[in-house]
Sequence to fold (535 residues):
Amino acid sequence: MNGNLLSTSDLDREGIDEILEVADRMAEINSRRIPRVPALRGRTVVSLFFEDSTRTRISFETAAKRLSADVMGFSVGTSSVKKGESVRDTIETIEAMGVDAIVVRHGSSGVPEMVARWARSAVVNAGDGWHSHPTQALLDAYTIRARFGSLEGLRIGIVGDVLHSRVARSDIEVFTELGARVTLVAPPTLLPPSLEPWEVSVSHDLDEVLPDLDVCYLLRMQRERMTEALIPSLREYTALYGLTARRLANMEPTAVVMHPGPMNRGVEIADEVAESPRALVTDQVANGVAVRMAVLYLLLGPGRDALGPVVELAEEAT
Amino acid sequence: MAERERRMTRPYGGVFVARAEVMNAEEVGRALRRMAHEILEHNGGIHNLVLIGLQTGGVTVAGALAGVLAEIEGLEDHAGEAPDEAGSGEEQHDDADDGAPGHVIPVGTLDVALYRDDIGIRPVLPEEVTDIPVDLDGADVVLVDDVLFTGRTIRAALDALVDFGRPRTIQLAVMVDRGHRELPIRPDYTGKNLPTRRDELVNVTLDSVQIGEMAKQ
Fold:
């Protein structure tokens, strides 16, 4: 990571592995009786959410607090943005108070990119439009890695509204970078017009794909982003693409179900599936804190890159 | 800690070139046995002891020390009754699984990277495993490291330990005390006092202790 985490497309395998390995150490901290270390004492992290979020925001704030950073919250509803302040002025105001990292979520793609251009602090993208949600993809990869040991060769199906989903875009990039074979399962209207840069396969038939999957990743039906009639009805969507208990029974016994939350129970995921031990949804949430701790630490703590090359000692030479 | 410090300390990189061997395998073993006896004498046995090796250099020393402690205690406990039990530390650990009290010495590892006060001065990554296997409340904890230098690692370790509980005592065992302390910290058990220059390096393994320099590549 070069000072910011803006998009999963900036991450190569080595970078992802480093984050996941540091996240392992952070997970150990989270299991302690007092889950807090002084690593980022004196640093300030501001969470700047122009779009609603509960889990991502709380997850980032928890992560920052567990590393002893100071956390400033900022939600648009109660801020001067309501009075018409521009994003740029908001950033300048916040930076004038002295912050070290800005965690930003915005409904428009590319806003974190712009913020990073204006800001001197480290910028972490907590989701922008349909573009990217890097920490979600990292925590998903971490969760799969914790279950299967590695993503290499795993068959992962990403099911649902890929078109509107930044989670899908980021997951595809991270999962394929780590060697997984990704299949997108969705009606044609919910797929992006071009899948050009991605090495993924596509199916419109969930029942056909399910028995071959190690991971079934369900996307949320983003009703708030759907402005046109892309599917006939939610009932029809559920009939064709909803993961029901009957469909779960057709999956391999070791296969798992994931969902980025918040779940639309009864739409993309049935109640029984969400409650099943095969669903890793709460693991995802718990791992999110560890992964975000790793990201904040790597950005605000001393990175290797920041301090020049570290040459391995040739112990054997002695 | 020492290995990583060497890797991370300015100038970054270079090769450790040994100039002299200050202890050989036999001397290291003897120092371990003396330290083990001192620990036993000071704590009146192993019953309440927890050894914690500091990542990375302290971990092997802690493991070896635990082996020696178990060996000594095993011999003393069973003197006359079970002479065949005078085995290695590992065997003693196995014995403890039978529920015999005081036979297993819990050995943990601690990575203090996230507790250091020199973050920002040099890169520190939390790369090593922290594993504290038992509750430290009321325990006699012996921190074990390979080399004691500035004392900053130990300060960080003390901060870290209090997050895991409230030990009755915390003691410090090091294979080499090389001086140059920057904090009011002293070891309780020392393998060897070794006067050094600041820019020298000390390399500790169970086979030898070497003193040398970092040669630029």
